[in-house]
């Protein structure tokens, strides 16, 4: 009974910490974005003295520069105080300290927190911190920490990892098409007389090819000749085909991870640690409870063969990934 109440207490504390962590992450990101808005900034008052032609001194008050409102500083202090406390506690309880320091999400969290303290010290020392402010954009990457509290985001990340080969192939074909169509549009616009030619070089055409193949179409650069228009139409069609080809594979992987996670969520918590992709097969050949026929050699239906193929392509990875996803106990898990 004591162990039962202890487990409930630990689970409740974990949920409270998760909610507080998500609150400070969202607050920090919103504060970081809002403090750049002109209405959220206040002018910096500076005294400027100049000497006129007749040798007299003039004094004026300049308000050209602005800085964020003071309230944003206190919000950042509170948020980074929590992040510092969280990093220290998580590092202290981490079983392997080196693995904790090598985790990408932890690296982002540590760098983002250190950038705040360095920015604060440089501001107090009256030194320029423009370059450091540029690197403080890494604070936006704190959104990656939400993956710890959302099973849906974890599924999405594992989907992209499982589809890495298809995504690399997509990028390869896009780069190949971009270079080819950039060269084609450059020479196509030079075949006919065109005083308003926007394509002065092939590197300039690369930008147009990227925008066209990704079906964005800003319209800042457009072909003027009939040959150039024909090349532009081919470029748009090629972009649609290249992007559409790997989509079914990505959707299939996402559906697989999602259905597996949904199945695990229906199990008791004590059994969520292990959920085999297929039933263990005895040395005889057929799976327990399976009758002959209906699925070809070795028994099993289409679903079993599909699971076998997935397990063959990603050996041992599915269960491990789903265990990581299933460990999400935050109330914001989906």
From TrEMBL:
<feature type="transmembrane region" description="Helical">
    <location>
        <begin position="226"/>
        <end position="259"/>
    </location>
</feature>
<keyword id="KW-0630">Potassium</keyword>
<feature type="transmembrane region" description="Helical">
    <location>
        <begin position="6"/>
        <end position="34"/>
    </location>
</feature>
<feature type="region of interest" description="Disordered">
    <location>
        <begin position="268"/>
        <end position="302"/>
    </location>
</feature>
<dbReference type="InterPro" id="IPR003968">
    <property type="entry name" value="K_chnl_volt-dep_Kv"/>
</dbReference>
<keyword id="KW-0851">Voltage-gated channel</keyword>
<feature type="domain" description="Ion transport">
    <location>
        <begin position="16"/>
        <end position="262"/>
    </location>
</feature>
<dbReference type="GO" id="GO:0001508">
    <property type="term" value="P:action potential"/>
</dbReference>
<keyword id="KW-0407">Ion channel</keyword>
<dbReference type="InterPro" id="IPR005821">
    <property type="entry name" value="Ion_trans_dom"/>
</dbReference>
<dbReference type="GO" id="GO:0032590">
    <property type="term" value="C:dendrite membrane"/>
</dbReference>
<keyword id="KW-0633">Potassium transport</keyword>
<keyword id="KW-1133">Transmembrane helix</keyword>
<keyword id="KW-0472">Membrane</keyword>
<keyword id="KW-0406">Ion transport</keyword>
<protein>
    <submittedName>
        <fullName>Potassium voltage-gated channel protein Shaw</fullName>
    </submittedName>
</protein>
<keyword id="KW-0631">Potassium channel</keyword>
<dbReference type="GO" id="GO:0005251">
    <property type="term" value="F:delayed rectifier potassium channel activity"/>
</dbReference>
<keyword id="KW-0812">Transmembrane</keyword>
<feature type="transmembrane region" description="Helical">
    <location>
        <begin position="167"/>
        <end position="188"/>
    </location>
</feature>
<dbReference type="GO" id="GO:0045211">
    <property type="term" value="C:postsynaptic membrane"/>
</dbReference>
<dbReference type="GO" id="GO:0042734">
    <property type="term" value="C:presynaptic membrane"/>
</dbReference>
<dbReference type="InterPro" id="IPR028325">
    <property type="entry name" value="VG_K_chnl"/>
</dbReference>
<dbReference type="InterPro" id="IPR027359">
    <property type="entry name" value="Volt_channel_dom_sf"/>
</dbReference>
<dbReference type="GO" id="GO:0043679">
    <property type="term" value="C:axon terminus"/>
</dbReference>
<keyword id="KW-0813">Transport</keyword>
<dbReference type="GO" id="GO:0008076">
    <property type="term" value="C:voltage-gated potassium channel complex"/>
</dbReference>
<dbReference type="GO" id="GO:0032809">
    <property type="term" value="C:neuronal cell body membrane"/>
</dbReference>
<dbReference type="Pfam" id="PF00520">
    <property type="entry name" value="Ion_trans"/>
</dbReference>
<feature type="compositionally biased region" description="Gly residues">
    <location>
        <begin position="286"/>
        <end position="302"/>
    </location>
</feature>
């Amino acid at each position: 009974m004591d162990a039962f109440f202890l487990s409930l207490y630990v689970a409740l504390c974990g949920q409270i910490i998760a909610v507080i962590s998500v609150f400070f992450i969202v607050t920090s990101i919103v504060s970081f974005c809002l403090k750049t808005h002109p209405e959220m900034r206040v002018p910096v008052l500076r005294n400027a003295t100049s000497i006129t032609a007749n040798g007299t001194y003039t004094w004026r008050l300049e308000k050209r520069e602005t800085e964020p409102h003071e309230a944003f500083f206190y919000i950042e202090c509170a948020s980074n105080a929590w992040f510092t406390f969280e990093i220290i506690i998580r590092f202290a309880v981490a079983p392997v300290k080196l693995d904790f320091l090598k985790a990408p999400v932890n690296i982002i969290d540590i760098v983002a927190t250190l950038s705040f303290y360095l920015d604060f010290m440089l501001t107090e020392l009256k030194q320029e911190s423009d370059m450091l402010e540029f690197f403080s954009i890494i604070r936006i990457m704190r959104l990656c920490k939400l993956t710890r509290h959302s099973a849906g985001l974890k599924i999405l990340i594992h989907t992209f990892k499982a589809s890495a080969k298809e995504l690399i192939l997509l990028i390869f074909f896009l780069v190949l098409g971009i270079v080819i169509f950039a060269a084609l549009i450059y020479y196509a616009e030079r075949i006919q007389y065109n005083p308003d030619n926007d394509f002065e070089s092939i590197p300039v055409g690369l930008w147009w090819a990227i925008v066209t193949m990704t079906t964005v179409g800003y319209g800042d650069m457009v072909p003027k000749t009939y040959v150039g228009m024909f090349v532009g139409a081919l470029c748009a069609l090629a972009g649609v085909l290249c992007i559409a080809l790997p989509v079914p594979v990505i959707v299939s992987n996402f559906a697989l991870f999602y259905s597996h996670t949904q199945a695990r969520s229906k199990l008791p918590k004590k059994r969520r640690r292990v959920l085999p992709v297929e039933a263990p097969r005895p040395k005889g050949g057929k799976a327990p409870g399976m009758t002959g026929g209906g699925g070809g050699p070795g028994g099993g239906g289409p679903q079993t063969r599909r699971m076998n193929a997935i397990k063959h392509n990603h050996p041992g990875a599915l269960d491990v990934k789903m265990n990581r996803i299933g460990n999400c106990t935050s109330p914001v898990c989906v």
